From TrEMBL:
Organism: Vreelandella zhaodongensis (Halomonas zhaodongensis)
InterPro entries, A to Z: MoaB/Mog-like_dom_sf, MoaB/Mog_dom, MoCF_biosynth_CS, MoeA-like, MoeA_C_domain_IV, MoeA_C_domain_IV_sf, MoeA_linker/N, MoeA_linker/N_sf
EC number: 2.10.1.1
Family: Belongs to the MoeA family.
PANTHER family, per database record: GEPHYRIN, MOLYBDOPTERIN BIOSYNTHESIS PROTEIN
Superkingdom, natural source: Bacteria
Primary role: Catalyzes the insertion of molybdate into adenylated molybdopterin with the concomitant release of AMP.
The protein, known as: Molybdopterin molybdenumtransferase
Cofactor: Mg(2+)
Functional pathway: Cofactor biosynthesis; molybdopterin biosynthesis
NCBIfam families on file: Glp_gephyrin, molyb_syn
Length: 401
């Protein structure tokens, strides 16, 4: 019997010789969630000129504490002219600070008759002025290679006038569901059949991890058809992911098919859930290969396996450091448990309190209870042969896309 391997060894096998995918240029409005293929340098200052942080009056600080004539009105988007000496300018949020002015006083502190304004005393230089380049200066590194383009990053690029961006090609994934007993929703269940819960769950997770799912395939419990469908999937995809068929039953053909088509790098892990997990490569006719990840058929095992293995694999293919490992945090256990020879990944909900982070474990941690994953914020990592009592510190992996 093969010795159960720790997750560290499995990740090494999974990520060995993984190379970044190529790049493509896409419009900025289609780049959400994509990963930068090149670093981007700022071409303009942000803001591009000194401007007012609020509605009020722009003036020289040395003129504060008296009535000043209002010499101009400056709305956002309108050019300013030099400030007349001994005067102030009515200005609105985002308006350009006129040359000669060095501060802005908010309108609530000013008395005005429409032609003059009584400015309070002691207005400091620079008050309520957003200086040119405060956020970004031309020539600064704006975003780095491997950064993921989420909301703020997209806004950052738009602020530079960027319309096209070079991003990594999405990893193409073929998602195979094995087993005669697994059927698609919408078909009446016959005795012994189950609806395919893994397919929509894993498709969503893969897309959140930056992949493009290019095939959804049902694989019957037949060795020859398993070989044929794996061969087709390897031709179409960078990564082939299967669910089920990697255990030791007579109808589990995926492991044998993988060994006939390429190589098996890893099988059986010392983790719970997710012990029967196959990692390997499928050889193509041109000599290249597609990565293979065979997840267990139990839905919780598939969910946990996706976070532990598919996420870092997508990160390696995309060259995205934030996807390489889940953020780890320390929490206080609000549960008791004990482990055997395998490392346990428990689904927990997190509560953030003044006392720190509290981890509440879902009562039923069985690998078939998918409801334990719906409101899970993290996976609590419990080492083998451990007894965990309430109040002890535990390590949790935060489930972030």
């Amino acid at each position: 019997m093969a010795e159960l391997q720790p997750i560290r060894v499995a990740l090494e096998a999974l990520l060995t010789d993984v190379h970044h995918l190529g790049a493509e240029c896409v419009p900025l409005d289609a780049a959400a969630g994509r990963v930068l293929a090149d670093a981007i340098t700022a071409q303009v200052d942000v803001p591009p000129f000194d401007n007012s942080a609020m509605d009020g009056y722009a003036l020289r600080a040395s003129d504060a504490g008296k009535w000043l004539p209002i010499s101009q009105r400056i709305a956002a988007g309108s050019p300013a002219v030099p400030l007349v000496e001994g005067s102030c300018a009515r200005i609105f949020t985002g308006g350009e600070i006129p040359p000669g002015a060095d501060c802005v006083v908010m309108q609530e502190r000013v008395e005005s008759d429409g032609k003059r304004a009584l400015i309070p005393a002691d207005i400091p230089v620079g008050d309520n002025v957003r200086r040119q380049g405060r956020d970004v200066c031309r020539g600064d590194l704006l975003l780095n290679i491997g950064d993921r383009l989420e909301a703020a990053a997209l806004g950052h690029l738009a602020g530079q006038g960027v319309t096209q961006v070079s991003v990594r090609c999405r990893p193409r994934v073929a998602l195979l569901s094995t087993g005669d007993e697994i059927i698609d929703p919408g078909t009446p269940l016959k005795p012994g059949q189950l609806y395919n819960s893994n397919r929509p769950m894993l498709k969503r997770l893969l897309e959140n991890f930056g992949a493009e799912v290019v095939q959804l395939v049902s694989v019957p419990d037949d060795y020859a058809q398993t070989v044929a469908l794996l061969t087709q999937a390897a031709t179409a995809a960078d990564v082939v992911v299967s669910t089920g068929g990697v255990s030791v039953g007579e109808e589990d053909h995926v492991k044998a098919a993988l060994e006939s088509l390429g190589q098996l790098d890893m099988w059986k892990l010392a983790i719970r859930p997710g012990k029967p997990l196959a990692l390997g490569r499928l050889l193509r006719e041109d000599g290249s290969n597609a990565r293979f990840v065979g997840l267990p058929g139990n839905p919780v095992s598939g969910f946990v396996g996706a976070w532990l293995f598919l996420r870092p694999l997508m990160g390696a293919l995309l060259g995205c450091p934030t996807l390489s490992a889940l953020p780890a945090l320390t929490a206080t256990a609000n549960f008791t448990t004990s482990t055997g020879p395998r490392q346990h990944y428990m689904r927990v909900a997190l509560r953030f309190s003044e006392e720190g982070i509290i981890a509440d474990a879902f009562e039923d941690q069985n690998s078939g209870v998918l409801s334990s994953c719906i409101n899970a914020h993290a996976l609590a990592v419990i080492d083998p042969h451990q007894q965990v009592e309430k109040g002890v510190a535990i390590r949790c992996l935060w489930l972030q896309h």
